[in-house]
Design brief:
The protein contains 14 helices and 12 strands. Helix 2 (41-51) packs across helix 11 (284-309), helix 4 crosses helix 8 (190-200) and helix 12 (331-345) crosses helix 13 (357-373). The strands form 3 sheets. Strands 1-2-8-9-5-10-11-4 form an 8-stranded mixed β-sheet, with helices on both faces. A two-stranded antiparallel sheet has the order 3-12. The chain has one domain: Leucine Aminopeptidase, subunit E, domain 1 (3-Layer(aba) Sandwich), CATH 3.40.220.10. The two termini are 33 Å apart. The protein has 402 residues and is of the alpha/beta class. The protein has helices spanning 29-39, 41-51, 61-70, 82-88, 96-105, 132-135, 180-187, 190-200, 245-248, 251-257, 284-309, 331-345, 357-373, 382-391; strands at 74-81, 115-121, 129-130, 139-143, 158-165, 208-209, 212-213, 216-227, 258-273, 315-319, 349-355, 380-381.
Length: 402
């Protein structure tokens, strides 16, 4: 991809794990062994991720070490074989149109491959400084909505898509609702099975706990269909299928809009909940909450990518106007804060799906906020930038009813 990601090249980001030149210092066999271990670490991480665990509720020795000693922010991690998950905890659809989509995506006899890696993370502390000017160089706008087309053609790259989550993970997936969250589950039906399995085990699948963000990451999800939501009179959806239009559509329109993907593609998801119910001007506290949520989720994606692909793998996150639909968030502000969070988290590229022309304009305004209004050096104090953002007078919008 040209532009902000071109500099990644084939090598990707430099590995974060330093190679200590112990051999040259002649410190004996132990030093040589340690040096070999450090040099082999990316391959070990990849093998550990691919090797898996014997059961969904067990944790392998490697991942116990990784989570306890390296990432205290990790709350929990579970693995599920997708075929077994779909058989033992099939998704429950409570509306006929959702059932129609599922029957097209997963006809009788369907085989589900791979596994889901579920992890939940506690809020991470924000860095003291941020390189605001560098943040906009990592962003690429993309017209339209999620198409799940990779942004990078680089071996070993890991791409993620943000799920605009409710505080209760996938809480309305089987209902008549069809906003971004529910649409993703319809196209990735094993997410519904994951929700049922977590509930059956009494696992607290929440993306906010005690008023603090606890974003959820899910790796390796099959996308088994594509649902067209754009208005199309000839296809029987004159006002589209998104949001409340989905429940009003007749069965034939839903059938025409749904295309089975065979073979399925694989998606990695970041489920994070935006704040809701605000009004008037955004406070410093609200801005900090958004930043902590996005930074934690994006940083967790970098850590999970490194765990599976080794240090140095390029990481790209796809997002959009998170929290700006039913929750009424300010488009320019929410875009600005996600761009800054991606920079602080060490994300290599942020693909921002803008929807229509108005969305593209909002993203450009966010760039201007960072490059002009927040103009600063490469090591600006984050607290000062937050105060300046708050003083800019960004105001909450209103819910769009979806």
């Amino acid at each position: 991809m040209a532009g902000p990601f071109a500099a990644l090249g084939a090598a990707g980001r430099q590995g974060r794990l330093p190679l200590h030149p112990l051999r040259r210092k002649k410190r004996g066999p132990e030093a040589l062994s340690y040096n070999r271990l450090v040099q082999s670490w990316p391959e070990i991480a990849l093998l550990a991720c691919e090797g898996g665990r014997p059961g969904a509720e067990q944790t392998g020795l490697f991942e116990v070490e990784w989570s306890m000693n390296t990432h205290p922010e990790l709350i929990e991690r579970y693995q599920f074989e997708t075929q077994q998950l779909m058989m033992e905890h099939p998704p429950i659809w409570r509306h006929r149109n959702k059932q129609i989509v599922f029957e097209i995506a997963c006809p009788p006899g369907s085989t589900h491959r791979g596994r889901l890696d579920y992890s939940r993370w506690r809020a991470m502390r924000l860095p003291l400084n941020v390189d605001a000017p560098a943040s906009t160089r990592r962003v690429a706008g993309r017209a339209g909505f999620y198409d799940y087309v990779p942004a990078l053609d680089v071996p070993g790259a890991v791409e993620w898509h943000v799920n605009f989550a409710d505080p209760h993970l996938f809480v309305a997936y089987g209902s008549s609702l069809f906003a971004q969250d529910e649409m993703q589950v319809a196209e990735h039906p094993s997410l519904g099975a994951l929700k049922e399995a977590l509930d059956a085990r009494g696992i607290s699948a929440v993306t906010v706990e005690n008023r603090k963000p606890t974003p959820v990451l899910v790796m390796g999800v099959e996308r088994r269909c594509r649902v067209a939501t754009d208005p199309n009179v000839l296809e029987g959806r004159p006002r589209g299928l998104y949001g409340n239009q989905f429940v009003r559509a007749d069965a034939e329109a839903v059938i025409r809009a749904t295309t089975r993907l065979d073979p399925p593609t694989i998606t990695n998801l970041i489920a994070m909940a935006a704040p809701s119910g605000g009004y008037g001007r955004y406070s410093v506290h609200e801005i900090e909450h958004v930043l902590v949520t996005a930074f934690t989720a994006f940083r967790a994606a970098v850590l999970e990518s490194t765990r599976c692909r080794g240090a140095g793998c390029p990481v790209v996150i796809h997002t959009g106007f998170w929290g700006c639909g039913a929750f009424g968030g300010n488009r320019v502000l929410m875009a600005t804060l996600q761009v800054l969070a991606a920079e602080m988290a060490g994300v290599d590229g942020l693909v921002f799906h803008t929807g229509d022309g108005a969305g593209a304009e909002a993203l450009e305004k966010a760039r201007s906020v960072i490059e002009v209004d927040l103009a600063s050096g490469p090591a600006a104090r984050l607290a000062e930038l937050i105060a300046r953002i708050a003083s800019s007078g960004f105001e909450w919008g209103v819910s769009d009813g979806t």
